[in-house]
Design brief:
Blueprint (H helix, E strand, L loop, with lengths): L2 H40 L4 H39 L1
Helix pairs in contact: 1-2
Length: 86
């Protein structure tokens, strides 16, 4: 492999990481903002509310999109191994 192929491989790896992590991060950030607004309005400042809701959101995203995430990771792994073998 030359440096161009390695650079392309690293770029694609970063893109896959961003693509796989973004649903969980964006939804947990949205839940965090909504909980913060709710807590500011009601003056309830309990930290476990935000933590539990974010945990539920992340687990549900993993359950719903886990297969898609695994397919993307397997495709990338197969591509890396084919480049190593070739």
């Amino acid at each position: 492999m030359d440096t161009g192929q390695v650079a392309d491989l690293m770029r694609e790896a970063v893109n896959i990481v961003i693509k796989l992590a973004s649903p969980m991060l964006l939804l947990s950030m949205a839940v965090g903002v909504l909980v913060a607004i709710f807590q500011a309005v009601t003056q309830i400042h309990e930290q476990t509310i935000g933590f539990v809701l974010k945990l539920v959101v992340i687990i549900s995203v993993l359950l719903l999109a886990g297969g898609w995430m695994m397919d993307n990771l397997l495709d990338f792994t197969r591509q890396v191994f084919s480049l190593i073998a070739g």
